């Protein structure tokens, strides 16, 4: 019974932090490719979004330069609740270094074990949910201001999004000490049940001792009828 009470209380007290990974499928028919991730994020949660993008080391991507990735929290009616962006570009490699690396990797490149690509890892911090729950995330690729709409968009092999949320202060303490709190609640519940059982069922648990009959033959002989008569 104590374990059941502790389990029910922990179900209401403990809240698990959000951790998920989703593949991003960008819509390249738009001037700013967009990918949506349906996910409900509780209010007042701080979220760190990590975007992994694998880009081919093509001449187009090398000459593209800077572009920007934006992450937005959307409500159920499509309103923007929070927004953060991060600039990025391919890591620069000079022509001699690129030729030298290609010579060293020629065998696995020809065999298909590796490819001429780079994986960009973008960490976007500071996203906090408001009073309205987040129902969807929108990830958008934006070009530089100097380019025309539809230009400056990188070529992608694949992309994915990882979300990690940070619980509020009290919930974070409960999550870190959930096993200890579970044991303490179970012990307190057991002690309370034991106390109630002792109070309510005391006559059964601790019966009163019965008074024994202490009459003996000597007592019968000393009755008034057996006493000697006075002269």
Automatic annotation (TrEMBL):
Membrane topology: Multi-pass membrane protein
Keywords recorded for this protein, A-Z: Endoplasmic reticulum, Lipid metabolism, Membrane, Transmembrane, Transmembrane helix
Compartment annotation: Endoplasmic reticulum membrane
Chain segments annotated as coiled-coil in the UniProt record: none
Primary localization: endoplasmic reticulum
Cited InterPro entries: Seipin (IPR009617)
Highest taxon above the source species: Eukaryota
Gene Ontology terms describing biological process: lipid droplet formation; lipid metabolic process
Cellular component, GO annotation: endoplasmic reticulum membrane
TM helices/strands, residue ranges: 181-205
PANTHER family in the cross-refs: BERNARDINELLI-SEIP CONGENITAL LIPODYSTROPHY 2 HOMOLOG BSCL2 PROTEIN (PTHR21212), SEIPIN (PTHR21212:SF0)
Protein name: Seipin
